[in-house]
Amino acid sequence: MTDPLPFRTLAPWLRESFGMPVYRVALDAGSTCPNRDGTKGLGGCTYCDVEGSGTGALRGGAELEEQLLLGLKRIERRKRTPDESIGAIAYLQSYTNTYVDIARLDEVLSVLDPYLEGPISCLSVSTRPDCLSAETLQRLAQVARRVPVWVELGLECANDEVLQQINRLHTVADFEDAVARVHAAGLSAVGHAILGLPGDGREGARHTAEVLARSGVAGVKAHHLMVLKRTQMAHAWRAGELDVLTCEEYVEWLADFVERLRPDQVLHRLTGDSPAENLLAPRWGVNKNRVRESLADCLRQRDTTQGTLCSPSWSSGLDNA
Predict the structure, then answer these.
(1) How far is it, in rounded angstroms, from Cα 100 to Cα 132?
(2) Domain annotation covers residue 16
(3) What is the structure's pLDDT at 315?
(4) How many Cα atoms are found within 13 Å in the side-chain-facing hemisphere of 240?
(5) Residue range 231-258: mean pLDDT, rounded
(6) Most buried pick, 37, 214, 229, 253, via CB within 10 A?
């Protein structure tokens, strides 16, 4: 029997929670961001490409329901037997999905409504911590009466100066306030972090984990900094002004990060990926399974686990992921 991993990963948690395998269906609802349209800034986050780290499907002509049905068909092929039950997470991924007027949010949710409690087992909404109105949370809370709702909030790093430099244009306090309001609405929060952002460093990655632990988010997504084409960061990388982590460095930093999370926070993601044609750096030539195994080996060598260095006052009491 394989030794259990010294950290909590998503797939086993999903199977335990839903009683079946559950897979994401990424959706593009045609949203934008306040740091792209001039409300807060222009150009978007310096690491974010023109698709908003998403599919670009809606701008490519695929309507939302069509995207959903195609995605459901894809995950149907993952059944190991014809009669196996599987579920879908409807994942509103691209850009800031709550940065819309309430009528547009209602329209998006109405497209998903017929599939809730059927193929859709969970709704996940990716957004910014400064784009969550009380009315939006109320709408999502209505959906949560039928299926679990995750609000995925981009913290990225717990350093306001770095957040300004990468054009995030929100603060750590904005993130902490958003998590508290998500929890007050009866929803679950997932926090995003990027390790290796310029100016943040290894100690910054550790501090980000501490903020995520303190906030009580039920889930955490972490990945290394990737330099993509068609981003502002690509110019700095081409000019030799930006370093990226090696795979070995990332695993060490990630181990530091995981040690400082709460033991029961679920790791939704441990590394990022991008189509090869869009990626400038780093090009490790290793897949996410290799990173997961390397992280497990690193923690075992240290004789630590997820949560070993978490403050005792933050180590329990999570909402469900």
Answers:
(1) 10
(2) yes
(3) 64
(4) 0
(5) 96
(6) 253
Cα separation of 34 and 127, whole Å?
A: 11
Q: How many CB atoms lie within 10 A of CB 169?
A: 18
Q: Convert the pLDDT of each residue in 47-85 to its tens digit.
A: 998 654 555 555 554 699 999 999 999 999 999 999 999
For 305, residues 6+ apart whose C-beta sits below 8 A from its C-beta are: 6, 7, 259, 263, 299
Cβ(190)–Cβ(126) below 8 Å: no
The CATH number of residue 140's host domain is: 3.20.20.70
> Using one digit for the tens of pLDDT, what is the confidence trace for 259-289?
999 999 999 999 998 888 999 999 998 789 9
- Rounded-to-integer distance, Cα 184 and Cα 99, Å: 20
pLDDT in tens, 115-163: 999 999 999 999 999 999 999 999 999 999 999 999 999 999 999 999 9
> Is 320 inside any structural domain?
no
Distance separating the N- and C-terminal Cα atoms of the chain: 27
Spatial contact of 54 and 33, defined as CB atoms under 8 Å apart: no
Q: Which domain holds residue 242?
A: 10-314
Domain count, the chain: 1
Domain annotation covers residue 319: no
pLDDT digits (tens, 9 = 90+) for 91-110: 999 889 999 999 999 999 99
156 within a domain of the structure (yes/no) = yes
